[in-house]
Here is the input.
Amino acid sequence: MSDASAPATSPGTSRSTSATIAPNILRYLARVAHGYDVDLQPLLARVGLDSTVMTSTALRVSYRQGSDVIRQAVERTGDEHLGLRVGAAQHLTAWGLLGFAMMAADTQQEAIETGVRYQNLSGAMTVWSARWEEAGYVLRTDLPDPALDPTAAVFLIEEAYSSVVTLIRLNVGASFAPQAMEFAFPAPRDRSPFEELFRCPVRFDAAGNRMVIPTRWARAPMPGRDPITYASMLDVLDTEMASRRSQQDLLEVLEISIAQSLPAVPSFLEQARRHASSERTLRRRLAACGTTYEAIVDGVRRERAEQLLRRPELTLRDIARRAGFADVSALRRAVRRWHGATPLELRTELLEREAPSDRQRV
Here is the structure.
């Protein structure tokens, strides 16, 4: 293969409230934060990810849960390059069966293209693509949501490329270095962590995020290459992808149904009937997705409330009614649970974040 693009069911196609991402990044984030004497467990628990849930192999988290934890972890550690640290702490085994498939690939290029093809199974929170260009073999990544909080957005891009460089070095040689790195976000105050990690020219404020991999490294044989193991692992991954698409479709259909019905919320029995299913079967399908109907409703209401808070002309009473809350007090309790702030404080933060003077972009 010479070109690998993001799959049709890439992370960017999901609504931000869908719990569809394996929480690999959050697990490593918690480990790295611990080295700063920062305990993320209370924060994880607040977004529904307590210690018991985080050890579940079936756990999936949403982009909203992930970005909330990331943003606050960066603030609490005070490390503006936390994404680089988290990426550098990883190993291919963190990616489960996909990691083993990549290790069994024939060349580094085939390993990368395998990762791109099955990226929805890796816990990736960016959207990957790879292809040969004039400059060399180019690995690009984009954000699933351009409106993502700038702090979380920079973290995710840093983590993405840091993990790739770290894993390539673990597999084909510690001397690996990209030919060039380009980042769409503004240059940080201190560039040295980027120069030390990537060991190549690094450019910021670029048109997009990309890593140029020298030809000899792209075509380097993988030390653990095994065509039989590789083929068998792809069979397993194809089966898992088919199951994941079914789960993702279910979550998106439910979210859309709830969003279109607000301020009213369809009952669970009504949703089961719409899917020609029993309540028990629908609950079992949602459990397989790592979520519940109540969590989906909460996520959709949260998204709607945040959209409405961006409209200064609306009162809190208007927002509570349109988002399906019983009253303003219920809205206040929900916003406090989601953000640790009042609705008015959150409104100020959202409006300031989106003001034209905000120079952060990715």
